[in-house]
Every structure is written in C-alpha cells, then in structure tokens.
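Lab notebook, bench 4. Continuing the backlog of folding jobs that were queued last week. Each job is logged with the same field layout so the records can be merged later without manual cleanup. Today's entry covers Leukocyte immunoglobulin-like receptor subfamily A member 4 isoform X1, a 511-residue chain. Filled in by technician R.K.

JOB TYPE: sequence-to-structure
TARGET: Leukocyte immunoglobulin-like receptor subfamily A member 4 isoform X1
LENGTH: 511
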Amino acid sequence: MCLSVLWAPRSHPPAQPGPGGGDAMTPILTTLLCFGLSLGPRTQVQAGLSLDPRTQVQAENLLQPILWAEPGPVSTWNKPVTLWCQGTQEAQKYRLDKDGSSMSRIISKTLDSENKVKFSIPAMQWEHAGRYHCYYQSPAGWSKPSDPLELVVTGYSRPTLSALPSPVVTSGVNVTLRCASRLGLDRFTLIEEGTHRLSWTLDSHQHNHGKFQALFPMGPLIFSHRGTFRCYGYQNNTPYVWSEPSDPLQLLVSGVSRKPSLLTLQSPVVAPGENLTLQCGSDVGYVRYALYKVEGDGLLQRPGEQSQAGLSQANFTLSPVRVSHGGQYRCYGAHNVSSEWSAPSDPLDILITGQIPDRPSLSVQLDPTVASGENVTLLCQSRSPMFSFLLTKEGTAYPLLRLRFTYRAQQYLAEFPIPVTSAHTGTYRCYGSHSSNSYLLSHPSDPVELVVSGEGPDPVLSELKGSAQPLPPGELRTLRSEGSEGGGSAGEGPAHESGNRWGPSTPGSHP
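JOB STATUS: finished
OUTPUT FIELD FOLLOWS
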C-alpha cells in the first residue's frame, strides 16, 4: 500500500535535545513522520490538505473521542507504544496532535474499520514524549478534542520509595510515602497502580543527607486504602522525560490479630559476608508472613510452614550479609491472601560490625569481696571518638547493654555492670558506634571470659580468665582474651542515653 502524508503546519518550538544532544527532530525527520507513528493495517492516510479541526466549527452534539496508550502512558525508552483514538461509527477521519509540535496527522478509516484507529510507536524515543489530543470527523463536522494524554518516556535511574513509619499500619494511623533520589530531580510523581492510576506530584527538597525527596502524606488509612505504589522523578525543563519507576511499594492495613515473634537464627550482630536468617513465627497458625525493614523499600513475603506442634513460621534469608542489611525489622502474619495483616512483631535490630576502623578495648573492675548478686563492672573504652558502646555475650540472642559514652582521662568509655551469678558466666565483647549511623559498629574488642564457680546461694567470682588475682577497687586491668579478630555486626538506630539497656525483654527497643 502506498501512503501519502501532508502535515498541517503550526508554530514550531525549539526542538528538544535527543539523547546525544543537538536537534532531535532534523536528522530523523523521515522516520519521525507522524511522530514516528505507523498506521494500523486497516487505516490509510488521507491525501491532500485537511483543515485543522480547531479552525472549523465543531459539532456540539458529537461525543468526545477517547485517547489512551497501550501498555500505558509511561513507557521505557526504546519500547513500543500504541496510541488509540476512539470515536463513533460515523467517524470518517481521525486526527492526532502533539502539543508544541508543528506536525499533525489525519487518518481516513476503511469501510471495515471499527470506531477506533491506532497509531503505533515502534520504539519510544525522547521526542515522542509529550501531551497529545485526538479528534474525529463525521458528516456532522469535527468533534471536540479528547482529554489530553500525557505520554512519558523514562530514562533516569530509579528513585527509592519507602513508607513512614511502615507500609503496614494499623487502621486509622497516618502514613507518609517518601520518594527519594540522589539525582537533582525537581519534582516527584507518585502513582497508585490499578484501574484508576491515581497520581500525585510534589516539588522535591534536598534532605540533610544529600538526597532529593518528596513526602506524600496519605492520611489515616482504612482497610480499603490498601494498594501498590511506584514513584518517578523528573526535571522541570523536561517534564515528560521521567526516571525509571521505583520498585513497587505495597501499602497494607494491619488488624488486631496477635503479633508474631521475630528472631534471628544466628546473632543480630553480624559481619559482612556472613549468613543471616530471620524467622517470623506464631502459634496462631498464619499461612503467610511479611518482613519489613524500617525505612526500607518494601515487604518481603513468604508462605508459612506448619509444624506438628501447631506452630507456623517463615524464614527470610539475608545472605550474604551486606552493610545495607543493618537496621530495624518487624514482621507480620496473615491467615489468607485476602485478609488483613496481624499486629506487628516486636522490633529486631540487625547490627553490622567492622564498619568503623577503630577497635575498643574491654577490661574489668571488681572488688575482691564481691558477693552473689552484686556487680562486676566491665569497661569498654576507645581513644577514638565513639557515641555509644555495645556489650555482647556469646550465645545470647540480643546485645546485653548499650550505653552512651562518657569522656574521661582522654578516653571515650562506658561502664557495664554485670551481676555475679552463674548465669552470667561467658565470653563478652564490646563495640563502638557513631551517632550518625549506629546500626554500623566498630570491629569487636578482644573477648573477656567471665567464670563464676561455687554452689549454693553465694557463688563467688572465682576466675577472670587471664587475671592472676582479683583487682583492688578502682584499679583497671585489661584481661587476656582467647581468640582474635572476630566478626560482629552493628546496626543503625537512635543513640541510647547512659544507663539505658537493650536486653532480651525489649529487643530493638528505643528509649
């Protein structure tokens, strides 16, 4: 079939630069006829001059045409897109215009055409992005223009989308979605996936960590507000050239079902490259579980595995450990695919070690007449600035204590009181952290082993490994340790005031 095209001239704006810079229209004019659009097999181009429908009297009683894009109005660069214009059975011609372009196209349909025509873009380019309208002509005249269709091409690296305080919130609680990028993007658009594709656009502002971001308040959530969201960023001078979409974020509303428990099968203090598995479980019999990292990008979901004891659980493997795994986690359970989620588990902090080059030292201070139930003091100190110190004991599920630093005798230090009971026999290490990122810890101190012996109600501290004699009050001495450079882990979280503790009863809690 031989096709002929005649463009109706309009004012021609400056051409947008293509990916390689320069005028994007001139070198590809031949292939960009009709914006690079091709006709469907049942349409032909009307030869000869056709009047612009906006210069003719429009028939008021004609239905407004509908213009849409498949697979959608936001397309990846170099991917095919089809624009559809739907009129009525009486339509004889269709016209497609792009705002700011001097080129338009008029199509006549054949006898077997339906009440719509398609315009194909074989490979989406920067110059195809923009605002489009379509019209149709019937014996009664030209229709009004369709509602505008904004066709967007994506190209910048993707932003991140997160929910504050969490993507799973109790009904009635406010939630804010944060779209952020390290690129200097001027605006961010949030889109809810689904039939209606609701969208919101906000100006960006620069966060104190250097990222550009926009905060979208979603208001109090109810069960019907669940949905999946993505966000995009763009610059004001190219409003139809967007970033790649963020990873999807599913927003869910939790109920009052009993919270599951969240624990780690290893230690919450881990080094990069080690294995880490988080286990979410409950005796309620949930059939699926979700894991969420505070200020993370979304939920990880796993089916629950039932045990003979009536318990169900799901394992979330985060191996090999990376620095980005440091943070605070919660998990949720649900009974079936359509049900709401349970109340959240207690928080669990994962701490990544070896992220501060300095290593603190651990030493002991004690009274030679310490009685059962009284305290031994373990002293963690560093000459390098530390904001807080963390004490761990091998074989325990959670760090024992976390204290804010005290500065004394040109040392940053914290004093950890340890009761003298047989239950506190074990090997201890300490770590330092910086206030700016306290999920990331220093290398561990050399270990100190505490041994308590004796039967009855008054066991005594009989041995401090590496110490020949108990030390006089007020005198500090570093204990010889077994082992050498161990791996540990640190996590990021709010600083703890001196005397505040992290213990097994309140894992991950913050003051």
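OBSERVATION: Confidence is low (pLDDT under 50) at residues 1-36, 38-50, 455-460, 462-511.
SIGNED: R.K.
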